[in-house]
Amino acid sequence: MSYLGIDLGGTKVRAVKIVDQSCESYADSLIPKRGSEKEIIEIIKKLISKLIDKSVVGIGIGVPSVVDEKLGIVYDVQNIPSWKKVFLKDILESHFNIPVFINNDVNCFSLGELYFGLGKKLDSFVGLSIGTGVAGGIIINKKLYNGSNIGAGEFGMLAYKDKNYEHYCSGQFFEKIHGEKGEEIYKRAKKGDPDAIKIFNVFGEHLGNLINQVIYTYDPEQIILGGSISKAYEYFKEGIQISLKSFAYQNSISNLKISVSRDPDIPLKGAASLCY
Predict the structure, then answer these.
(1) What is the pTM of this model?
(2) Where are the alpha helices (DSSP H) in the chain?
């Protein structure tokens, strides 16, 4: 008996086959920036087809948006403009004839940490994914808090400065404000470029302001950072600490731990866990 876990991101979709809670085989594909709804669904079908066999009894999918969990309808994917209302569960169950379970991608990241990663010994934490966008998955008393529309934890959509937190606390900060991909600035920072290091410090201050809002709202034991930008944590952690100094209850800050996910497969494992 095995399961498939699918992680649909803003630029890439990844898939894994999990047997006995271990990742056995993988597949991935880039997503066209202006791909149609049907085009992206076909990409997902092809990935699943590469991994599926008679042992697969369920497919779990993490998507970067809000979801009708019962009906499996995906709404208004911010980084995939063509996805306004996608009946993804029905489409895939009709095609593959096995159960499909869908949730928000960052919720899947947090479920992965809860069952397989840094959250196994924690009662409450927030998994904060920083990549194309920024959002959180909220674990309270060892259970995922979804909200009514699988929309809890969409911190990036909160108003901040002249835009919202996502503009300042995700890859958008590097591309839209500094005209360069975060990966390129990261490479320069690793070489000791002072301008690149300064950019990451400022990024960290913005992210620290977001973390302040998360702590005021949920007061978690730990915040676990994930997503592509978390790899650069050493260059923006000081900026985070600068902003945390403005938090009203400093004892809470002294008790808080901020860590970085150690397993790049955690979102996939969390998606597969939707089937359990």
Answers:
(1) 0.93
(2) 37-51, 88-96, 105-116, 165-168, 171-172, 178, 182-190, 194-218, 233-244, 250-255, 266-273
